[in-house]
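ok so dumb question maybe but i'm new to this and my supervisor (M.) told me to 'just get the structure for Molybdopterin-dependent oxidoreductase' and walked off. so i did the thing. is this what she meant?? sequence i used:
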Amino acid sequence: MIGRRTLIGGGAGLLLAGCDRVVQVPAARRILFAGEDMQRGLQRALMDRSALAPEFDAAQRSPFFRPNGTRDPGTANYAALRAGKFADWRLTVGGLVARPLSLSLADLGAMPQRAQITRHDCVEGWSAIAKWQGPQLATVLRAAGLRDAARYVMFTCADLYGGVPYYETIDLVDAFHPQTILAWALNDRFLPVMNGAPCRLRVERQLGYKHAKYLMRIDAIASLAGIGQGKGGYWEDNVDYDWYAGI
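this is what came out, is it supposed to look like this??
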């Protein structure tokens, strides 16, 4: 596990939420997702959502964790943050919270850490095993103090799709799951840019497109209405991916 001293003193060297080869043919998309609304609804209702995703030994890690979706946000703001080794990057936590936060990488590293070796499953059909480290999202949300009206957590990212920042949402069950972390390290090194530097979401019980990269903002919200087309995420709104992608 990377220690706090390493995080604060080391240069934040330069992981995978949106999929880049999205099924664009409507007929193929219908086949791919046929019946999934019913399947996911039943899954959410019947599965033990507190259950842990499988964890693996270090020797089982994949030799390379491939990039997917955005490889580099490429914006002027992100380029400036990258040039400064993310010393000026801040993760804003707001919305329906009692105590809005502005967190640096050092702040995240000073929180209790969770390290886990898990398998990433992409909607494209590939998987990879890697080690992730960061504070639990629950730790951050408790520090901010969720208001009673909060029902979901929204993530806004630095990468743009059609000029719009990538966005995703999860409910509070997944937000407070012990394996849901804000990862700043991959395989005991700072996140590479291609994998989402300086911080990304890991929500291990869901498919890869839910694991938002290049995090800039976290907001507690009451409803998915008014966010994009109201389906809860960029791919959900634009390519009919399921909002709940539980595995």
